[in-house]
Amino acid sequence: MNYFPDEVVEHVFDFVTSHKDRNAISLVCKSWYKIERYSRQKVFIGNCYATNPERLLRRFPCLKSLTLKGKPHFADFNLVPHEWGGFVQPWIEALARSRVGLEELRLKRMVVTDESLELLSRSFVNFKSLVLVSCEGFTTDGLASIAANCRHLRDLDLQENEIDDHRGQWLSCFPDTCTTLVTLNFACLEGETNLVALERLVARSPNLKSLKLNRAVPLDALARLMSCAPQMVDLGVGSYENDPDSESYLKLQAAIKKCTSLRSLSGFLEAAPHCLSAFHPICHNLTSLNLSYAAEIHGSHLIKLIQHCKKLQRLWILDSIGDKGLEVVASTCKELQELRVFPSDLVGGGNTAVTEEGLVAISAGCPKLHSILYFCQQMTNAALVTVAKNCPNFIRFRLCILEPNKPDHVTSQPLDEGFGAIVKACKNLRRLSLSGLLTDQVFLYIGMYANQLEMLSIAFAGDTDKGMLYVLNGCKKMKKLEIRDSPFGDTALLADVSKYETMRSLWMSSCEVTLSGCKRLAEKAPWLNVEIINETDNNRMEENGHEGRQKVDKLYLYRTVVGTRMDAPPFVWIL
Amino acid sequence: MITELEMGKGESELELGLGLSLGGGTAAKIAGKSGGGAWGERGRLLTAKDFPSVGSKRAADSPSHAGSSPPRSSSQVVGWPPIGSHRMNSLVNNQATKSAREEEEAGKKKVNDDHQPKDVTKKVNGKVQLGFIKVNMDGVAIGRKVDLNAHSSYENLAQTLEDMFFRTNPGTIGLTGQFTKPLRLLDGSSEFVLTYEDKEGDWMLVGDVPWRMFITSVKRLRVMKTSEANGLAARHQEPKERQRNQPA
After folding, report:
1. Nearest residue of chain B to residue A111 (CA atoms)
2. Spans of biased composition, class Polar residues (chain B) (predicted)?
């Protein structure tokens, strides 16, 4: 390859798209490193504090697309204080100063302000795509800047963000000349929506393929929107309360029939229990269905809908579907690849909850299943063993038994053997979440068998440091390890400090690690940021004579090439 | 604290019982090594008192229908079950709306049965589990979240908010960067008042309605400067005089 001119090598590299692969080729030799970095357009940064904007721009000056992730995963469950960090502002400022031709920005768990959005909208002439997932700190005013200033906006995709809705007119800020929209997702906005502006926008966007509405868009508006966008592929329904005899409903039925390209359906944020039948005619085309927010729809109506969805590949649903409903899914959806079952009721079980039977049924009926997230009331080892036998192809397996420490409900044994069977059979398992009563034994199995495991979530599990050590020593590809309320301490933490260089991050909260243990770790590994998050009082930790042995509430450590961050709030102590 | 590591000696040496001594049950921890209570006494692991039914359910052979509800607000586990806060809020809102609606219906029907209204009440309190709502304060850039279900009264809530935004420990700096003097957010005697946005989007002064009704209708809180709160629905105003005011 070295006999070819750079342009040829670069052309070959164009076919290499995955981040992992591009990172790998950049390590082959200096020449390839140089060619690769100048031709790299998409960069993924899994932890925004692992590097900084200056280094990013120095290495990849031709950057067009940037993905950044901020807070640790457990921030989703309110375990990370709001002011912890993950600010996008310095990144946007640096990118703006450098005049790089940014076209796409994807952020997850970051703090985004209206100021950031305004700066973003004004700094990049060709900016096309903004995807914000689980972000916070901005309002609809920020969205107004994006709408008004990004002339070639293609995607505005807001997923599960916390946005202060000023109920302003952000939708009307899209100029009449804006006709390039392909994706518009504002389902997470809580406030009212200017329906007239929305309808006009959709009508002048012939390329619009994905539209996800918020709860403020009622049925008659939905009917009008669908009839002026029959090319729709992905639809998120907002409010869906209707009277089946009404004119709106008839118009909706007619509009739906015309949407022959529709493949993905979601939303039903406020939905009447009985009304899904309007969508039955297009169900046979659906590959993705997300009814996980439709709390009002009863199991029987869900089942009726699903019986039409023979091509479904992805299904997100509430546990109100029940085991019987899952059996219907198992017999109907033979193409199913991903299933998520969320809890609909947090206070103790009901007849509608799902159990191990539903999981077994799915595993038996859906041979292509590779990703599952399953919240349930109870589980058995026998069921998990059967699931492992039926589905050895799991890539992601996340099981959440709602009651912590719950054992096998038939044998009262820990669930070590069940999970052990899963990791033994599923040789491609990359992500695993554990729950239920678990001893060190399950970690022995994980360390022994889960060779491809990259992300592991542990809660209320294990007995001794051995558990954590099995994992650290055994799982060579571990990238993200997150542990809460488990009895792992300094011995496990300090056993192999070099391991953390191969991992993106480690989170430990309510475990047994002590302050002195963390300090020792920080001394041994200066290339790690070891953060102690103590919302009570850091001063007290220091003053206390027994400071060394004081337990650390929350520990978050991650490898970094840029040292301690400067934007940490007072309750975050970076050792 | 575990001081010995015997990894090399092979796993067969591990004697694992049901490691967790929940309610002093059948567990036999690895003898001597862990010093039994080392993590038990200060452990963040939930003990039997957090799950009064778990220990006994395990001993008994009954298929545990999780009628043993997860712990109530006092020993509520933060961040469990692991559901994203956006989804959790949606769940909570749905249940609150449903329960409030049911409560209204029950009230309207004038039920003879004494138990029914009480049950509905319990449902309202029981079902609305993790009610985290956002709190912003004028002059503070980033908001906080507070769990309404961990509070039982307005005084309770005001105290938490005062601690949150104005740390009461001398020498420590709270979010506002000021040293404290205790606030009285509820009685109008301080520089700030506590306001909330309800389901209809109106901003009101906190304290007007019964606590229970408040927690089912509040969407978010704001600690507002008293000087700016003049237009808000005050206690003496009639509902129809209330204006839809956007806080500046």
Report:
1. B142
2. 87-98
8 Å CB contact between A119 and A150: no
A contact test, residue of B16, B41, B89, B135 with most A CBs within 10 A: B16
Q: Which two tokens stand for residue A254?
A: 């007619």
Q: How far apart are CA A315 and CA A566, in angstroms?
A: 42
For residue B100, pLDDT over 90 is answered with no
Q: What is d(CA A415, CA A405) in angstroms, rounded to the nearest whole number?
A: 10
Choose the mutation target among A77, A185, A468, A541 for the interface with B, i.e. most B CBs under 10 Å: A77
pLDDT at residue B216 in the model? 78
CB A354 within 8 A of CB A377: yes
**Which chain A positions have a beta carbon within 8 Å of B173's beta carbon?**
570
8 A C-beta contact, residue A400 and residue A433: yes
Q: Give the Cα separation of A273 and A355 in Å (integer).
A: 23
- Whole-number Å distance between alpha carbons of A306 and A328: 8
Query: What CA–CA distance (Å, rounded) separates A123 from A400?
Result: 44
User: Who's near A406: CB < 8 A, 6+ residues apart?
Assistant: A378, A379, A435, A436, A437, B54, B64, B66
The residue whose two tokens read 């269905």 is: A289
What single-letter amino acid sits at A316? W
Lowest average pLDDT, out of A238-247, A552-561, B36-45, goes to B36-45
pLDDT of residue B34: 37
* B86 contacts A134? CB cut-off 8 A: yes
A417-433 b/e (C-beta count within 10 Å ≥ 16 → b): bbbbbbbbbbeebbbbb
**Torsion angle defined by CA atoms of residues A458, A459, A461 and A466, in that order, rounded to the nearest 10 degrees:** 40
Residues of B in contact with A413 (CB under 8 A): 18
Strand partners of residue A183: A155, A210
**Confidence at residue B72, expressed as pLDDT on a 0 to 100 scale:** 33
pLDDT of residue A392 exceeding 90: yes
Closest CA to B132 of B195, B222, B238, B219: B219
Contacts of B197 (CB under 8 A, 6+ apart): B203, B204, B218, B219, B220, B221, B222
Q: Looking at the predicted structure, is the pLDDT value of residue B35 above 80?
A: no
A240 interaction partners in chain B (CB closer than 8 Å): none
**Predicted confidence (pLDDT) per residue in A278-299, tens digit:** 899 999 999 999 999 988 888 8
Q: Which candidate from A160, A439, A486 shows the least CB-CB separation from B84? A: A160
Can you tell me the distance from the alpha carbon of A311 to that of A334, in angstroms, rounded to the nearest whole number?
Answer: 7
Is B132's Cβ below 8 Å from some Cβ in A? yes
CB contact under 8 A, A76 and B85: yes
The structure's pTM equals: 0.77
Spatial neighbors of A4 by CB under 8 A, at least 6 apart, are: none
pLDDT value of residue A244? 66
ipTM: 0.88
A417 CB within 8 Å of a chain B CB? no
Instruction: Report CA Rg, chain B.
Output: 24
What chain A residue is nearest to B169 in terms of C-alpha separation?
Answer: A537
Model confidence pLDDT, tens digit, residues A374-385: 999 999 999 999
**B86 with A160: Cβ contact below 8 A:** yes
